[in-house]
Amino acid sequence: MSAAEEVVGEGHEAVEAVPKRAMTLGTGTSLLVLAVLLIVPVFVKNFIIFQMTMLLIYGLAVLALNILTGGSGQFSLGQSAFYAVGAYTSAVLMEYFNVNYALTIPISATVCFGFGYLFGKPALRLSGVYLALATFALATAMPQLLKLNFLEHWTGGVQGLVVTKPDAPFGLPMSQDMWLYYFTLLVTLAIYIFSVNLLRSRSGRAFMAIRDNEIAASSMGVNVALYKTLAFGVSAGITGVAGSLGAIAVQFVAPDSYTITLAISLFLGMVVGGVGWLPGSFVGAAFIIFVPNMAESISKGLSGAVFGVLLFLVIYLVPHGARQIAILGQQFAGKLRRS
Amino acid sequence: MELFTNQVLAGIATGAIYACMALAVVMIYQAIDHLNFAQGEMAMFSTFISWQLMQWGLSYWTAFVVTLAFSFVAGIAIERILFKPLAKAPVLTNVAGFIALFAIINSSAGLIWDFTIKQYPTPFGSSPFLGSQLISTHQAGMIGVTVLLLLGLYFFFQYTRIGLAMRAAASVPESARLVGINTSWMIALGWGMATAIGSIAGMLIAPVVFLEPNMMGGVLIYGFAAAVLGGLSSPFGAVVGGFLVGVFENLAGTYIPGVGNELKLPIALALIISVLVVKPAGLFGRQIVKRV
């Protein structure tokens, strides 16, 4: 019937197979979205700009999970730990060493890449629910580790650290929020292009071969161990960048902002956006930022239940996430053109 | 040495809680092949139902039986109404469904019964067991009930037709369907049984951790860990895993310096993961050979 069903025809794999071309948007649509993202901040209030910044940041974190799960088929509930490491790296560098905020971002990316790569090593032997438990353990341990006494001098313990928000450079006539938004947009764009190209490259093909059938991939000569840990590293690196940007935007880091709840939100964002569909990450990010607020405004006491019901509605209507809508849209456009 | 034995005993006592929960987790994993993240919340809700019944004047055991029946039916209803439509959806979508269910149940329980901590009665009494200060009669009763449950499940799955049908439906659904087993209803039955076992776990745990909507958060994590440690395909492994996790956690808290209550969980989890790295299918799990 529809392409969405064809893709998932054999749907018993842990992660459904997504063809490479279906992972991105067409050039025209991408440029249109970019144009909207560039123009809108000029016309809206600072608070909305801040929310858009957060959307891009969470979008990046979801994108990172998408590369790991949708790309290489590994499941992670530990993304909040990588996010925390990125945030703290930036915060500590900015506050104690007076490093420029823009320079802290590649540093956190490198630190988190190393962290993720190392974590990926023991995780190699685990898959499915076992991997989920291992990453979950990482996520629950991280806030506790940040509170440890001998780290308190650097991390500020339970109190956390305050981060100063950067001003717009070169005397540009912009508010801090607006400058940070454009800065985030630039970083996001760079990482998005990097991710798309990564998945189209030889490494990306290796990821997908492992996702679809690990044994077949290894017999075709793919170095399974290398690419699985690499996927963890890249995913952690991008999450770290998101963490850094998040710390700068929120101006504050504390252990309890990076609990398992964050990791679960990111996971929900990935499902709602469509597993393996990179642009969907930003749709998913919008869901996890705005829907809880919406639920709160509908009913204060029952906000959790309202959120749950909304989530159920979404997964009933589009079990494959926003990607399904995009595919239907494409087909509709194709039909229009033909007739 | 005495400290050591005492800590092990105390660990076994808490382990009984985890064993109960792990048993419920394994049950549902056998039936539907997913870990149900909402399992703890379902157990919590059942426990609240029994508490409410007792508030209305029913005796403990009447409330117990009514709650068991209610949980069984509710489990089947949740599967039929909420998760059957998702049967064809990808696994990760199902997991999102569990998280949604978690949020719904937690928030409704909070609204109905509010978040204050409530006392919950125990049928076994809470005097010291056989003169030991470490294990109360309630904890001994809990261990007893867990073992009974395990035996009951063993006989059910090994020696009854419907148990056999459920095993067949879980391991080779297509062939099971060909020999006339209604696999779809077997899944529903699995949900019902898992929910009922969960409610027993909830009612046994409530006197220890007190009754409130978030009471299951910590327990469920340990229950999962126990189930995974024992091997998700083995109910026996789940119970052993539960006791081991309890002992692990207690010994780590006692002997590793600087481990407060907060670090107990990460350390227990880290230990479990080291076990898994050596034995990836858990201690008693079947090694699954994949066909290419």
| Coarse structural class of chain B | mainly alpha
Strand order of the largest sheet of chain A: 1-2
The major beta sheet of chain B can be summarized as:
2 strands, antiparallel
- Tell me which protein chains meet in the greatest interface and how many residues each side has: A-B, 49 and 43 residues
Rg on CA atoms of chain A, Å: 20 Å
Secondary-structure element order of chain B, as H and E? HHHHEEHHHHHHH
Shape of chain A from CA axes? Answer: globular
Description:
The complex is a heterodimer of chains A (339) and B (292). Chain A contains 15 helices and 2 strands. Chain A is an all-alpha fold. In chain A, helix 3 (46-72) crosses helix 9, helix 5 (101-123) runs antiparallel to helix 11 and helix 8 (176-200) runs antiparallel to helix 11. Chain B is mainly α. Chain B has a two-stranded antiparallel ribbon. The radius of gyration of chain B is 19 Å and the shape is globular. At the A-B interface, helix 6, helix 12 and helix 14 of A face helix 4, helix 9 and helix 11 of B.
Which tags fit this structure?
heterodimer, A: 339 residues, mainly alpha, two-stranded antiparallel ribbon, 15 helices, 1% strand, disordered N terminus, B: 292 residues, 11 helices, 2 strands
Write the layout of secondary structure elements.
The complex is a heterodimer of chains A (339) and B (292).
Chain A: H1 3-8, H2 27-43, H3 46-72, H4 79-97, H5 101-123, H6 128-147, H7 152-155, E1 161-162, H8 176-200, H9 202-212, H10 214-219, H11 224-250, E2 252-253, H12 260-273, H13 280-298, H14 303-317, H15 322-338
Antiparallel strand pairs in A: 1-2
Chain B: H1 2-32, H2 39-55, H3 60-83, H4 91-113, E1 128-129, E2 132-136, H5 137-159, H6 161-171, H7 173-178, H8 183-209, H9 216-230, H10 235-255, H11 261-278
Helix pairs in contact in B: 1-5, 1-8, 1-9, 1-10, 2-3, 2-4, 2-8, 2-9, 3-8, 5-6, 6-8, 9-10, 9-11, 10-11
